[in-house]
Amino acid sequence: MNIPLSSVSLSEREINYAKDAIESGWISSSGKYVARFERALARRIGRQHVISVLNGTTALELALRAVEVGPGDEVIVPALTFVAPAAAVRTVGARPIFADITRESWTIDPDEVRRLITDKSKAIIAVDVLGHPCDFDTLKSFGIPIIEDAAEAHGACYRSKPAGGFGLVSVFSFFANKTISSGEGGCAATDDDALADRMRLIAYHGMTKERPYWHDVVGHNFCMTNIAAAIGFGQVERWDELVSARNCVAQEYDELLRDTPVQRRPVASWATEACWLYTVATPRRARTLAVLRNASIDARAIWTALPALPLYADSVHGVYPVAREVAKTAFWLPTWAHMPSDAIRCVAMTLNAAVGSHIPAGLGEVS
Ligand SMILES: *Cc1c(COP(=O)(O)O)cnc(C)c1O
After folding, report:
1. What is the pLDDT of residue 257?
2. 3 has which bridge partners?
3. Whose CA is nearest to atom 5 of ligand 1?
4. Which of 255, 233, 228, 304 is nearest to 26 (CA)?
């Protein structure tokens, strides 16, 4: 059985909305689905303002610009995450400073953050890694603006409140492999009226609302298209279904892998995880992945720890034992909403055999 890492779940709803957007002729960013999508998201995550943009990476850049992060500033970023937060900090001319993650959550370690704060620290990007919220109460106590990256955390909760509600600005991605998707897409959410205005200004050419073709700031064009918003709106209407469908897949894996000697991603006491990609760890990862891949199962090693990237050498301020260990041992199993049980069983059985003593000859360590 050929089993991909991920697959998107699109229903008649998204197809009809996208068709409606196209037939209306409003295929760029001025169309009714953009506002609908933003309102539906704001309700869902309990925020006053949602600004939809091209993707999660531009949402991060927009958030950084809105809180006026620029050259000379430092932004504390977790050492284990998809690279976008670090890249966005560089894009606005500031320096990311890597903090290690904790063993009990795999999210940014507040003790590390405390150690790394200087008078140049302008923000913390708190990434809700793999659908697990950060320790926000502790992070907020430092009094430095938090940008929450909830790109992998649709449907997760921190102390019963939805992820996406904890940053001065919080961002989401709606890339095709994320829990809620618009094809390409992202958003920035905030409760601060002035910040919201500033983000809308930057995201639309720096053009003031009051006076057409008058520009006080250098803007971008970060606007999401009406077609993408139509797809995203349909997905937001299916939010509960799409979140719980992934959690069901995780539950099936949990049961099937109960006696398998792999470590499941840890979940801290404050967190309600929303499974994005089912993640496990083993010191025998290379061999295990080779067996899975040999069975046409697209399991994949997690990201390289960011401090190991030469590009970010001047962001390294420590040794990052936890991030490095997780980066060397963790990997993703195929996960998507409504993944069929026979595919889940096939992955679990192959994994079981791989981490047991039955490593087929010829499948040695590969990286
Ligand atoms: C996917 C992702 C992003 C980037 O989102 P895009 O929409 O792909 O630009 C940013 N941060 C994290 C943590 C992500 O997982």
Report:
1. 97
2. 297
3. 56
4. 228
For 29-89, the DSSP string reads S-SHHHHHHHHHHHHHHT-SEEEEES-HHHHHHHHHHHTT--TT-EEEEESSS-SHHHHHH
319: exposed, middle or buried (C-beta count within 10 Å: 0-12, 13-18, 19+)?
A: exposed
Q: Specify which residues 271 forms β-bridges with.
A: 158
Quick: pLDDT tens for 24-76: 999 999 999 999 999 999 999 999 999 999 999 999 999 999 999 999 999 99
Q: Does the beta carbon of 84 sit less than 6 angstroms from any atom of ligand 1?
A: yes
Taking the centre of ligand 1 as the mean of its atom positions, its distance from the CA of residue 56, in whole angstroms, is 5
According to DSSP, the residues that pair with 125 across neighbouring strands are: 147
CB atoms within 10 A of CB 152: 26
Tokens of 267: 């979940």
Residue-level pLDDT at 209: 85
Q: Tokens 């909305």, residue?
A: 17
Q: What pLDDT shows up at residue 183? A: 97
Distances (CA, A) of 134 to 2, 171, 366: 35, 14, 33
- Tell the residue number behind the tokens 């499948």, with chain if given: 363
* Pair of tokens at residue 176: 């095709």
Residues 103-155 pLDDT 10s = 999 999 999 999 999 999 999 999 999 999 999 999 999 999 999 999 999 99
pLDDT on residue 64? 98
Sign of CA dihedral 258, 265, 274, 232: negative
Here the tokens at position 277 are 């990609």
Q: How is residue 342 written in tokens?
A: 């026979």
**What residue owns the CA closest to ligand 1's atom 6?**
56
Residue 73's CB is within 10 A of a number of other CB atoms, namely: 18
Q: Which amino acid is at 333?
A: L
Q: Is 278 in the pocket of ligand 1 (CB under 6 A)?
A: no
State the Cα–Cα distance between residues 126 and 149, nearest whole angstrom: 6
283: how many CB neighbours lie within 10 A of its CB? 14
pTM of the model: 0.96
